[in-house]
Amino acid sequence: MCRYNESLLYDLLFDSSAETLKQFGRDSKWLGAEIGFYGILHTWGQTNWIHPHIHYVVPGGGWDGDKWKDIKYGGKFLFPVRALSIVFRGKFIEGLKKLYYKSKLTIPKSMNIATNKDFESFIDVVVARNWIAYSNAPFKTPEAVVKYIGYYTHRVALSNNRIKSIDNNQVIISYKDYKDNKKEKELKLTGEDFIDRFLFHILPPNYHKIRYYGILANGNKEKLKKIVTALIESGKDSNLYNLLMVVIIRMLAFLILFAPTGLNC
């Protein structure tokens, strides 16, 4: 489905996952503050097949009106991933249904969806699957944050060193099999299949694959200045560099991944 509705479904993926994070941030059970974060869209998996997902860098706290509020549980826990998955799935499915019933989706014939009943049956199958929301441990240093950002923002679907050989009409690529203890394996593809897989990951023209939300959104620059000032003033170290590093560590803490499943992308 993603092949025929790239912008629509990628936008829906951004919107539903971002709203999920903001909802959990506002909930006093988990934080009770306005959070800020940014997301990076990736469309590929290890075998270069279609696997749309978003990596979010999320702060270790939020802005509570006039002060910074650190996350609970000693800074080691942000939000429960199982609950995130359920809410994310609900928001995404709701958005998908709206697109379908407004006749905005292009449905490929291979999906065998000819009637509304067929579509609802498809939705039932998708909802029954486990949806992915994964959270990494907090970053420990500002350098780790910068390294992560630099590594992920401009990655391509397949680097040259993973192309092991090209012979006649066959291309062999290496990949990590995460279902088999991350063992490195090789995959043989025809030239046409290799090109098809690679070209799919070229995003639509002018599509924004990096987006900012909440207190990190472009429209909240003045609020962000207040937050940074408050964090600096709360520091005990008189060295400005160290204070700024504290701000970065506290504000850029967790990595969360969202990925829909079962959409026959």
Brief description of this entry?
With 265 residues, the chain is α+β, with helices and mostly antiparallel strands.
Notable characteristics:
single chain; 265 residues; alpha+beta; five-stranded antiparallel sheet; three-stranded antiparallel sheet
Question: Would you kindly provide a written description of the structure presented here, covering whatever features stand out?
Answer:
The protein is built from seven helices and ten strands. The chain folds into two domains: 2-157 and 206-259, no CATH class; 160-200, no CATH class. It has a five-stranded antiparallel sheet with strand order 5-10-2-1-9. The protein has a three-stranded antiparallel sheet with strand order 6-7-8. Strands 3-4 form a two-stranded antiparallel ribbon. It starts with 5 loop residues before the first helix and ends in a 6-residue tail after the last strand. Residues 243-247 have low confidence and may be disordered. The radius of gyration is 21 Å and the shape is globular. β6 (163-167) and β7 (170-177) form a beta hairpin. With 265 residues, it is of the alpha+beta class.
Could you describe the largest sheet, including whether it forms a barrel? 5 strands, antiparallel
Adjacency order of strands in the biggest sheet: 5-10-2-1-9
What spatial form do the alpha-carbon principal axes imply?
globular
Task: Bin the helical content.
Answer: 25-40%
Number of helices: 7
H and E string: HEEEEHHEHEEEHEHHE
* Rg value: 21 Å
Q: What distance lies between the first and last C-alpha atoms, to the nearest angstrom? A: 5 Å
Strand-residue proportion:
15-25%
**Average pLDDT, to the nearest integer?**
84
How many domain units?
2
Instruction: Provide the structure class.
Output: alpha+beta
How many β-strand stretches? 10
Question: Low-confidence parts, pLDDT < 50 over ≥5 residues?
Answer: 243-247
